[in-house]
Design goal:
With about 270 residues, the chain is an alpha/beta fold. The chain folds into two domains: about 5-200, Vaccinia Virus protein VP39 (Rossmann fold, 3-Layer(aba) Sandwich), CATH 3.40.50.150; about 210-265, Helicase, Ruva Protein, domain 3. It is about 40% helix and about 20% strand. The protein has eleven helices and nine strands. The strands form two sheets. The protein has a seven-stranded mixed β-sheet, sandwiched between helices. Helix 3 (about 60-65) links the parallel strand 2 and strand 3.
Length: about 270
């Protein structure tokens, strides 16, 4: 059973005080103190079953403790040496704590599940890293609400962009739920959300071209797609008449795939 909000917040403050740790804004340290938010991670992890998992940024190990009851083994990568030392002495036997950069580990990990109450500053790099690592079949990520909206956005919406296309090209995406600012200590400037990513496509050699194309297209997201694509692809506008009068921000993943195929034929 998960602890109550008051109990979890009190425990967090006591441990931070005992360790002499003041949360670092530079490291994006905002500790989850809401059991409702905790369940947004644990419930989707439970559905995955007893697998090896990688946790990026375990902090005080609140999620780790409950995830360890699900996973066969967890590698928890923590950047802060003070927290890593605390975790090494307090985690269950099936949790290996490593001091290091979580994004780098996500790039190279061989485990199939990555989860993270992600420091907001590394959310986008972490998603890009796991997209490139075909070993990662599932990810449960806590990210800033705005970024979650970008991942789940539809063509034409204000939040729709390169990250939307990258995430949805490689994963089936589901928004699990929102975590209010008040669910963290200290409170961040924005609310968060938990998203589930389940792989639908493998990264293959040459897929960097997809990123290059979306980077070029969305440098002018509000302009007419045929004109921007003509410049990005180096083809005549007449070859892109099928785009009609749509703007770049209205292009679907299928549209971008078709444009990418045109670059491969050149």
């Amino acid at each position: 059973m998960t602890p109550g909000w008051v109990e979890l917040r009190r425990w967090t403050l006591e441990v931070l005080r005992e360790l002499g740790i003041k949360p670092s804004e530079r490291l994006g340290q905002h500790f989850l103190v809401d059991p409702v938010g905790l369940r947004l991670f644990i419930e989707p992890l439970s559905r995955l079953g007893s697998l090896e998992m990688l946790e990026v940024g375990p902090g005080l190990g609140v999620i780790t403790r409950y995830a360890s009851e699900i996973a066969s083994r967890i590698v928890a990568v923590e950047l802060d040496p003070r927290l890593a030392s605390y975790l090494q002495s307090s985690m269950p036997g099936n949790v290996a704590v490593i001091l290091g950069d979580g994004v780098e580990h996500a790039t190279a990990t061989r485990v199939s599940v990555v989860y993270s109450n992600t420091p907001y500053s590394i959310s986008s790099p972490l998603i890009a890293a796991i997209a490139r690592n075909n070993n990662v079949a599932h990810a449960i990520l806590g990210v800033q609400l705005e970024l979650a909206m970008r991942i789940a956005a539809k063509p034409g919406e204000e939040s729709y962009g390169r990250l939307t296309l990258l995430a949805n090209r490689y994963f089936n995406v589901r928004l699990v739920g929102v975590i209010p600012r008040s669910s963290y200590y200290p409170e961040p400037e924005v609310s968060g959300a938990v998203v589930e990513l389940h792989r639908r496509r493998e990264w293959v050699e040459g897929d960097e071209a997809f990123e290059d194309l979306t980077r070029c297209l969305f440098s002018e997201r509000n302009k007419k797609a045929s004109k921007v694509a003509s410049r990005c692809l180096g083809v005549g506008v007449e070859e892109l008449s099928w785009l009609g009068g749509r703007r770049v921000r209205e292009l679907t993943l299928e549209d971008v795939e078709k444009l990418l195929a045109m670059t491969m034929r050149r």
